[in-house]
Amino acid sequence: MLILTINPGSTSTKVAIFADNKKLVQRTLRHDVDELEKFNDIMEQEEFRKKAILDFIESEGYKIEDFSAIACRGGILPPLESGTYVVDENMVDYLKNKTKVKHASNLAAVIGFSLSSGRIPVYITDPVSVDEMIDEARISGIPEIERLSLAHALNIKAVAREVASQLGKKYEELNMVIAHLGGGISVTAHEKGRMIDVNNANDEGPFSPERTGELPVGDVVKLCFSGKYSKNELKKLFVGKGGLVAYVGTNDVKKILEEGSDEERFFVDAMVYQIAKEIGGMCAVLKGKVDAIVITGGIANNPKIVEKIKSYVFKFAPVFSVPGEFEMEALAMGALRVLRGEEKAKTWGEKDEKIS
Ligand SMILES: Nc1ncnc2c1ncn2[C@@H]1O[C@H](COP(=O)(O)OP(=O)(O)OP(=O)(O)O)[C@@H](O)[C@H]1O
Ligand SMILES: CCCC(=O)O
Fold first, then answer.
1. For a designed S-S bond to 71, which of 27, 172, 203, 331 qualifies (C-beta 3.0 to 4.6 A apart)?
2. 299 CB less than 6 Å from ligand 1?
């Protein structure tokens, strides 16, 4: 069965073609920043990115009818259970017109649905807003604000299954702490197959290459009312221009480690320190019963960083490194499980919207 996978990022769209579980080809379609700047809103990029995907499919000698399914990165839907969902008009309408968080992933299902024109099924798997948090984890400390589960769920769930199989167990039999270290950072606690707590990777937890993570709230209030920044400028400062970008001027950890000064590398150490602290917290969430701590994402490609994190947390559980991300594979497998009848695709129904 041929499956087309679509995974849009802020400046590129990753696409791949799978024959069952075998990846035939993967391409990163890079979009010129000047070209993207012409669009006021991410959704306005639909036709532009769709054309790039169609050109890719044609260049590989396929047409849409050749595929058994299109597997898309899930966008920021209201909180929902892990799994594979059918993309329908209802979901597309939500992503186009109602979602409150602008994220390139919102485009995937919209484009997939349009490409299919009802000819083949379209699915999403484990979107950013997968929510399996326990109730205690939802309490922020102020009734007006509820803590949200926003994480790199797609890669994290795939990596969880991979490490479980390395341990000869099922994901549902283990307790794990999994940290995805990319442009954003998600540190997550998994109890017997459910992701029961997570730092909202947009707003909380460690600072990351381009996000501030958690900040001292009193000082944030001062910044908000300083008159120096508009609301949008502040949002960009916290997500996009924060973290290492704010201190060192780049989100490229590899470059900082290879070419940076001692002072610049210190900020990577500070990020490692915050990551370790968050991992420790998630071990406490699991009451210390942790079968594995797993480090994944692009930054895990650096063994020295993994070793540094390990030096803080090795007493809590064995530490595994799964460098990179496996989002395209996870999307294809999510669709394949449904096509093979191993799993039933869920139908999404809009629930109370909690994301703002
Ligand atoms: N060998 C390496 N050593 C250190 N850092 C690395 C290495 N390879 C990649 N990185 C860093 O990983 C980061 C990018 O990670 P990744 O590719 O997971 O991010 P992304 O896909 O852009 O964002 P996200 O994972 O948040 O969706 C960059 O800071 C990059 O410099
Ligand atoms: C919000 C967490 C997921 C992402 O950054 O893509």
1. 331
2. yes
